[in-house]
Specification:
The protein is α/β, with parallel strands linked by helices and 191 residues long. The protein has one domain: Rossmann fold. It is built from four helices and twelve strands. The strands form three sheets. A five-stranded antiparallel beta sheet has the order 1-2-3-4-12. Strands 6-5-9-10-11 form a five-stranded parallel beta sheet, sandwiched between helices. Strands 7-8 form a two-stranded antiparallel sheet. β3 and β4 form a beta hairpin. α1 crosses α2. The longest helix has 12 residues. The radius of gyration is 17 Å and the shape is globular.
């Protein structure tokens, strides 16, 4: 952890790159190191090949809107997949017969939905799927993705992220590049 006056940060090294992440309280007790890959082309292009090398064979990558999108775009490109699927966080007007799952994650702290258009669900039916996200924390978003994909009759062959936060790093059913600790909201110290 670094401190610059009142600003506390955590220095993360991943895929040979260093990023200084601000420590942000999510409630009275817990703070997280805010990891945002949106717009960080250097980080995405450095991490994607490392993660790709750890993934088993799959037919489709699925991610939840929105932070995982640049990562699955790059993974799809380097692995030669022409298409990936994004579970949206609201039902869109173009969706016909959407499939829906509910989730409460550490960063949203309120109930959200994940949904797929029936057309995307049909593509995934009986296919090998890799779920990919930026961070796996409590596992609630991952669980919602698994529930959503179960409704599509997929076979999940991998659950992967760039980072596993706190106790998620102890799971043996996920693939990740680095562990990200949690922090005490009052002090900013690693828990």
């Amino acid at each position: 952890m670094r401190e610059d006056s009142d600003r506390k940060t955590y220095v993360l090294t991943i895929a040979g790159l260093e990023r200084e992440l601000p420590i942000i309280p999510v409630n009275d007790k817990i703070a997280i190191a805010s990891f945002v890959i949106l717009g960080d082309c250097e980080l995405v292009t450095a991490c994607a090949p490392v993660l790709a090398a750890r993934l088993p064979d799959f037919d489709y990558i699925v991610t939840a809107e929105a932070k995982g999108i640049p990562l699955v775009q790059e993974l799809s490109r380097i692995l030669g997949h022409a298409r990936y699927i994004v579970a949206r966080k609201s039902v869109k007007p173009y969706m016909k017969d959407p499939i829906v799952s509910k989730v409460v994650s550490i960063t949203t702290q309120k109930e959200q939905i994940l949904c797929l258009d029936a057309k995307d669900a049909a593509l995934l039916r009986n296919r090998r799927v890799a779920i990919v996200d930026d961070v796996i924390s409590t596992g609630e978003s991952l669980r919602a993705m698994e529930d959503l994909l179960a409704k599509c009759d997929t076979r999940i062959v991998a659950k992967a992220a760039l980072l596993a936060e706190d106790q998620a790093a102890e799971r043996d059913d996920i693939i990740f590049l680095e562990r990200l600790p949690l922090f005490d909201a009052a002090t900013g110290k690693e828990i």
